[in-house]
């Protein structure tokens, strides 16, 4: 892991133009359990695989509600995600108190990106070892953003991060054209199927190890758009979602989750 004194801090470039501590933080994201995000014209869905460190511990929370119109899922160090989510909650509250409106999604994502990038400009700081997918709805519609430890943010139609996420990305790329016109239930089904692709062959999605977050807009009888507040599905609430998504695949959503040990505290 030690690379010729160029990885002692996050502000020193190697002769090849690399900052090794950022690469180490990105590796922490790859060690975390997978999470998937999808965006349509009306909804954004986050689907996450939860992990417990041992049989005696509970499953780590992977999806966090920030505001009624905004939520996030994480892969990597949960403690770093908690710091960033608390910062986002303060910014969302400040926007309501100052301007009397929910904070735009792109603005709050830019703010956490600036916060993360500033850590690469101070010797005493380190990069955040967590990747985030931020889902929300504002005046311009539904949005899905990816946040990386380097501070880079980008808007996505669909995305997957975490361990074995390449398999989930392959599923998303294969079905990309159908996402835009999907409704709420269809988008959740696609998300769960993509997440299932990232599992080992001997693992299954269950009500214990999976969670879903959904936010979107719906039309009222008068034709006006109404916010569907961010909602987290967890525990037994996941049973009908899993049953619908995995119907005909021979899985049992009511099955027990299995522990997956990790060498570092990632989720």
Account of the 3D structure:
The protein is α+β, with helices and mostly antiparallel strands and 267 residues long. It is 30% helix and 25% strand. It has a five-stranded antiparallel beta sheet with strand order 8-1-2-9-10. A five-stranded antiparallel beta sheet has the order 3-4-5-6-7. A hairpin with a 2-residue loop joins strand 3 (63-67) and strand 4 (70-76). Helix 4 (165-174) crosses helix 5. The longest helix has 22 residues, at 78-99. The chain is globular, with a radius of gyration of 19 Å.
Question: Any chance you could write out the topology, listing elements then pairs?
Answer:
Blueprint: H1 20-31, E1 35-39, E2 43-49, E3 63-67, E4 70-76, H2 78-99, H3 105-118, E5 130-138, E6 141-147, E7 153-155, E8 158-161, H4 165-174, H5 184-197, E9 210-219, E10 225-233, H6 238-245
Helix pairs in contact: 4-5, 5-6
**SSE order in H/E notation?**
HEEEEHHEEEEHHEEH
Counting DSSP E segments of at least 2 residues, the number of strands comes to 10
- Helical percentage: 25-40%
**Tell me, what's the shape?**
globular
- Oligomeric state of this protein: single chain
Tell me the fraction of residues in β-strands, as a range. 15-25%
Strand order of the largest sheet: 8-1-2-9-10
Structural class, by secondary structure, is alpha+beta
What's the N-to-C terminus distance?
A: 21 Å
Uncertain residue ranges: 250-263
Query: Could you report the average pLDDT, rounded to the nearest whole number?
Result: 90
Rg over alpha carbons: 19 Å
Please count the helical segments: 6
Major β-sheet annotation: 5 strands, antiparallel
